[in-house]
Here is the input.
Amino acid sequence: MGVEGIGARVTRKEDKRFLTGKGRYTDDMTVPGMKYACFVRSPYAHAKIGNIDATAAKAMPGVIDVLDGKQLQADGIGNLICGWMIHSKDGSPMKMGAWHPLAVDTVRYVGDAIAIVVADTSGEARDAAEAVVIDYEQLPVVTEAVAALASGAPQIHPEAPGNLIFDWQIGEPDAVDKAIAAAAHVTEIEILNNRLSPNPMEPRATLGIYDTAEDHYTCYTTSQNPHVARLVMSAFYNVAPENKLRVIAPDVGGGFGSKIYIYPEEIICLWASKKTGVPVKWTSDRTEAFLTDAHGRDHVSKVQMAFDANNRITALKVDTIANLGAYMSLFSSAVPTYLYATLLSGQYAIPAIHANVRTVYTNTVPVDAYRGAGRPEATYLLERTMETAARELGVSPAELRRTNFIRTFPYQTPVIMNYDAGDYEASLNAAMQAADWNGFAARRSQSEAKGKKRGIGMSCYIEACGIAPSAAVGSLGAGVGLWESAEVRVNAVGTIEVLTGSHSHGQGHETTFAQLVAGRLGVPIDSISIVHGDTDKVQMGMGTYGSRSGAVGMSAVVKALDKVEAKAKKIAAHLMEASEEDIVIENGELKVAGTDKSVPWFQVALASYTAHNLPSGMEPGLKETAFYDPSNFTFPAGCYIAEVEIDPDTGETDIVQFVAADDFGNIINPMIVEGQVHGGIAQGIGQALLENVQYDANGQLLTASYMDYAMPRADDLPSFTLSHQNTPCPSNPLGIKGCGEAGAIGSPPALINAITDAIGHNKLTMPATPMKVWQALHAAH
Here is the structure.
């Protein structure tokens, strides 16, 4: 392990351009003749579209054209799709309502796009959009998931009677019911998981360019997976043939899952470019982002957890209603099913589990994956239930968890997942020691002396990362495989380019991927470039989400490096007249072990391209590709402990300490991992204490700006105490598990458990705002 290789705290290479304002984002892109787009969006949550009069708008200064959904439909552009098929428990397929990129006859949420205005400037486009006159016939509205299933609720899609998309189950209901009936104790709780807006720093943007001479399309976009965007836009939306469509995702300022999907705007700007004959750019403003970016979470669940006389869990029964909004987004169906219910065993040996999940349409923004995507919902449900059970049973929440931990691996859960490795007690012990768990009673007494309420809570999470293997997810309904690709190009002077199908939008790939190569070949990290995000440069790849870049993307790089190293050793052995089995790579040289013979790396690279003296039959060059399809998911896990102090006069919660003990397997760059954990915890704290998407009875979004949607700020957050335990993952060559989502998964239940411990009862839902906490405190009295 060198100072720049695996395990080193290398400063991020990419930060120089970001910190000096030299990043190149989609909105920075300009091309000759480029015009600007503004979308005409519905002000109503549910309405029939009547006449669209764009006469005045078209006559305004700078306006190129105004285009609507009927024109889009006439040109054969397809509807947006959901890419993961789920079947109800009766065998019927999910009920996917039509989602036109531009609404044709009905709008179903405030912000639904109806028309696009293309003009010389963004200001002229916006002014003209306001001049488009549309007749609406307003329809009844429903925004809450439970209400959407009620008899007589407004019907949102004709394809989904009663607004039910699917009624799905996993596990053995009879075994669970039997165990509950025989239990010594049953804990029952209703869990609400609040709706969130993802709020990446960079709003979404797209630039569509149609080249008439070449009959070719280029799309710059804020995407986490440009190759999938190209595939879907060509194969399903009929925007362009795949070989005539280039998708480029340059620097992307955060995603958190919200930039996985193909949104209407990318499709429409490409189509509009061909229709108008000019390149068309659209950049969202922040209110538009609140109105149109896919939201996250929004579950209502009822839980029963059964225990025997020794406090061992015997069964878990879960009934969940998940709000998917007005339309099914690209991966929305997978989030409350295979990314949620399959993690309901948590870290615990639970013999019988049954989960029933109903998903519904409402007149709200579509809901899809948001940092963690199903795993935060599962962890919150399970860990709130465990904490509640401990209180009801009169035992330590730590010891109740310890009693039920899985201790032998591999472990087959009752809900598909096969955990390959872990040591949950190690994380629990590390967190408890760092938090001085045993000293809490004294600290609570000190707070009481000051008139404050103090509470402590823990959360033991597990997640499934890597989202693989392809055959497994395919059998569960995924529309694509979830492998990854890599190409390692060694140039003639020995510099190296790594082309990866993974996509970096804040994770630090340009550093960590380079560290992997530097450590393997002994070359300086500055001689290694990482290329991603361009479908014309990089072979087909699956992008970044689900903490898969290390476990899947870097494993593909390892496979390509294996081939490069093998060929380089053959060349070096030939040049030094040695056996290739005796060749080792150290400090940028290929050496004959046990001798002073060596050739520098650049000389081997040059020899491969001059091809004057290669082994017989060897092709020139030093470039290799690889595809990697994992054999299993990876399973990061850990224990988080939050300690809070509450002012009973105001309800304000002060997080006095937050401890995170994580097992991510082997770590490439500890500094980057810590940054990922910090960011995840901050988002989890945001959900627990501050953030909440709210609609009124008419479907108007009440939280469409930062004046109304509360994001965590620096003074809302404590310093975090982090530690890492390590049980390497046996199912990939690097032993990596993934770290990008853990903080957002483990932190909300730890905080709510701490707050409910302080207030003395469980009647509290997220976000635990000062008003809610104050009301809960006074309700207790």
User: Anything to note?
Assistant: The CA atoms of residues 386 and 690 lie 24 Å apart.
